Amino acid sequence: MKQEEWLEQLTKLFQDEINLYSNVLELEIQKSTAIVQADAKSLETIIKKTYELLVMASEIERVRMKSIEEVYRSKNFAFPETGALALSDFLNRLDRDSNYRLKEFGSSLKSILQRLKEKIKSNEKLILTRQEVLSKTIEAMKEKVMESDINTYSSGKNPERKQTKRQSLMLNASA
């Protein structure tokens, strides 16, 4: 494979991967909104779309790494001792023009993946907070039910109706 061909192929793969991860990042932003609004249907749709995009991105990454491996073989580059190919090692072995062109895409991909990682962590914290609020609300409701007087009639010769003593429970719906 000629240098122009593999360089063009790797460039295209990087662009596709960057676009997919950008779409996943956008979905994670939408996911935050769905979590805050407690919109389960939207959240389910977003999770399915995210999964589909991640599967596609994984396949593109596999093809990209295979292409890099082919370039290693065609250029007779020595494979790293660890056995795992690293993009930085690959770029360091290329000529300056190819290195510059691919390094820009590698940096963009790394930046998007870093932002995506931060957003995923943020969404995990949001979900845990929502679960905690829901658990505490359920606990408070159970406690109030146990505290209230449930008997409505007295026993004995002349049963009389008693007023139940139910306490109010104030919930913060926006939490």
TrEMBL record:
Protein source organism = Leptospira noguchii
Q: Name one Pfam family in it.
A: FlgN
State the source organism's domain of life: Bacteria
Q: Where is the composition biased (Polar residues)?
A: 166-175
GO BP, one example?
A: bacterial-type flagellum assembly
Q: Which family does it belong to?
A: Belongs to the FlgN family.
Record function comment: Required for the efficient initiation of filament assembly.
Q: Which UniProt keywords apply?
A: Bacterial flagellum biogenesis
- Protein name as annotated: FlgN protein
- Region entry Disordered: which residue ranges? 149-175
